[in-house]
């Protein structure tokens, strides 16, 4: 069994949530719970893209700034961003100022608008990649057959910064995979929410 972190209430949790003060509430209330709201799904895939090469703590502490900068991740609005918006965002110290990632978020918003028109919703598309069976112990891999397939499908549709590792982290966070450690008090709550 993976090592666990004992929370302030004395209950066992995934070890990583003891790594920073911000992690506990995120772990207990968000990470791994199934999400089918398109705006939330778009936000998360953007934030995972921004995290590439950085720590999740960096992104989590800047999340409210990202939400303000990217219109609460309303992809219809972000799809209308122009080069002027890119330049504005490059001056915003509250977010990660990486031109490629900013441009990718705008590009991906356009692709998200297309996806909704073609598939009905982002959720309908993403949840097709929910694994039918989990073959690995929780938190032991950084990609999966499904994350590789979803990454390829997104890239084929023109999405950027959506490699298999980024997509796997997105799938973990959005509940397509329940990757809470065995023995983590939240694992069972997530399982019940998934039914």
From TrEMBL:
GO terms for molecular function: DNA-3-methyladenine glycosylase activity; metal ion binding. It comes from Litoribrevibacter albus. The lineage of its organism: Bacteria, Pseudomonadati, Pseudomonadota, Gammaproteobacteria, Oceanospirillales. This is DNA-3-methyladenine glycosylase I. InterPro entries: Adenine_glyco (IPR005019), DNA-3mA_glycosylase (IPR052891), DNA_glycosylase (IPR011257). Gene3D superfamilies: Hypothetical protein, domain 2 (1.10.340.30). GO terms for biological process: base-excision repair. Zn(2+) binds at residues 14, 27, 180, 184. It holds the Pfam family Adenine_glyco. Transmembrane segments: none annotated. Keywords: Metal-binding, Zinc.
């Amino acid at each position: 069994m993976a090592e666990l972190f004992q929370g302030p209430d004395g209950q066992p949790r995934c070890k990583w949530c003891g790594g920073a003060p911000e992690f506990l509430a995120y772990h207990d209330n968000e990470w791994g719970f199934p999400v089918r709201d398109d705006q939330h799904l778009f936000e998360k895939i953007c934030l995972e893209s921004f995290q590439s090469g950085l720590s999740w703590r960096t992104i989590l502490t800047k999340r409210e700034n990202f939400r303000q900068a990217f219109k609460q991740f309303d992809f219809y609005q972000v799809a209308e961003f122009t080069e002027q918006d890119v330049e504005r965002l490059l001056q915003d110290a509250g977010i990660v100022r990486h031109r490629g990632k900013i441009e990718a978020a705008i590009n991906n918003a356009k692709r998200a608008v297309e996806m909704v028109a073609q598939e009905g919703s982002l959720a309908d598309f993403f949840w097709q990649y929910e694994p039918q069976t989990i073959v690995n112990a929780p938190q032991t891999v950084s990609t999966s057959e499904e994350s590789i397939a979803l990454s390829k499908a997104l890239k084929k549709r023109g999405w950027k910064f959506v490699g298999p590792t980024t997509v796997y982290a997105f799938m973990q966070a959005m509940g397509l995979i329940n990757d809470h450690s065995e023995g983590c008090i939240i694992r069972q709550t997530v399982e019940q929410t998934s039914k």
